[in-house]
Amino acid sequence: MMGLAEYRPPGFGLDASHLCCDTETGAPGRFRKREKSVFKEFREFAMRGNVVDLAVGIIIGVAFGAIVNSLVNDIIMPVIGYVSGGMDFKDLSYVLKPATTGADGAAIPAVEIRYGLFINLIINFVIVSFVLFMLIKGMNQLKRKQEAAPVPPVETPADVKLLAEIRDLLAKRA
């Protein structure tokens, strides 16, 4: 049975691949120097194609989110506010406790449920979802067109044609 001091959980960093005997004295249990430094391993990981693609996707997503937020806040919401008689959804709220002034003269802010901001975020989500749906739909249509395009037949290389002729001639002789 293994004692508590001997137990090492998986991933603890002391697995058998790191143990080696000392090359000079032959004493067991010494740690050998790792072949790759942690920095080199991290650099290899970070420079893999899928990690770089993910980073680019996140950056583009953040920029796209800013554009959609501007579209909602600066274009769509003012139109909805105009149609609804000048109402701005950002200011809609239900006040649970009005703002007061404390005994020491400090202002205590109102406690309110700001459902107008929630409506703004729902509209924002619907617009982002719709735009992404249209983008993916367009990409799928392009992909279908590429798949539907007939693939031109591959021309047989000259050496293969020559070998086929030789084979046919030999078959006739036999």
Layout of strands and helices, then pairs:
Elements: E1 19-20, E2 30-31, H1 38-46, H2 49-83, E3 94-97, E4 100-101, E5 107-108, E6 111-113, H3 115-148, H4 158-173
Antiparallel strand pairs: 1-2, 3-6, 4-5
Helix pairs in contact: 2-3
Summarize the structure.
The chain is mainly α. It contains four helices and six strands; from the N terminus they run ββααββββαα.
Provide a descriptive summary of the structure in words.
The structure is a single chain. The strands form three sheets. The protein has a two-stranded antiparallel ribbon with strand order 1-2. The longest helix has 35 residues. It is mainly α. About 3% of the residues have low confidence. It is elongated.
Mean pLDDT across all amino acids:
77
Low-confidence stretches: 14-19
Could you tell me the number of beta strands? 6
Derived from helix and strand composition plus strand pairing, the structural class reads mainly alpha
* Helix share bin: 40-55%
Write down the secondary-structure element order. EEHHEEEEHH
Radius of gyration: 35 Å
Largest sheet: 2 strands, antiparallel
Coarse shape: elongated
- Number of H- or I-type helical stretches: 4
Beta-strand percentage range: 5-15%
**Cα distance spanning the termini:** 77 Å
Spatial strand order of the main sheet: 1-2
